[in-house]
Design a protein that fits this description.
64% helix, 198 residues, mainly alpha, 2 domains
């Protein structure tokens, strides 16, 4: 549809130009064609008046500048006061940054809960040893007895979404939020259950 409209506009402009070409022929010649011809004629005179050796020297200089620019190390042409790029962050740094931002809202709280929920899932797989546990299965297993609040926190992190827990302080004050568990409690629990029992 857009292309068809563009073709119609281009055709209309071309048709208008053809209709107006004959009556405006003298004006077009005086305004555009004659000045352009004079400029080109002047440039050709200037080109012919210069010695050929000078053009060769200019050509060689341009080629040398291009050659030096392509062979020189890039540090020469980059400004020295430019800030060095930050190295990419690893998973531990990302988790630490998310923990710092948990005060900023439910999204960052959920991100930490999601990481810890995935860790709990991996610990249960390691403890069971068969690797057949579904990621959608509840986080339960032998000798797995977190507090109800911590269990809900890990389940929400693994299976839930931050969108289910709005940041409104009024809603949190009335209903509470499972994402408000102390992170160190979850870490201590997971750390204590990360070893395989004989």
């Amino acid at each position: 549809m857009k292309n068809r409209r563009l073709w119609w506009i281009a055709g209309a402009v071309l048709g208008l130009a053809l209709v107006m070409a004959f009556p405006l022929r003298d004006w077009t010649q005086r305004t555009f064609i004659t000045p352009l011809a004079v400029i080109l004629w002047t440039l050709s005179l200037f080109y012919r008046s210069m010695p050929q050796l000078l053009w060769w020297v200019l050509d060689v200089m341009v080629v040398l500048v291009m050659l030096i620019g392509s062979l020189a190390p890039p540090e020469i042409f980059t400004p020295r006061d430019r800030n060095p790029s930050k190295p990419p962050q690893g998973p531990v740094e990302n988790l630490a940054l998310s923990i710092q931002k948990t005060r900023d809202g439910a999204y960052f709280k959920w991100m930490v809960a999601n990481r810890l929920g995935k860790l709990a899932y991996q610990i249960l797989i390691q403890r069971e040893g068969d690797g057949k546990r579904s990621v959608f299965a509840p986080l339960v297993g032998a000798d797995w007895s977190p507090s109800p609040q911590l269990q809900k926190y890990l389940e929400v992190g693994l299976h839930g979404s931050f969108a289910e827990y709005p940041d409104s302080e009024r809603v949190i004050r009335i209903n509470g939020s499972p994402l408000d568990v102390e992170i160190h409690e979850a870490v201590e629990f997971l750390e204590g259950h990360s070893e395989i029992k004989p």
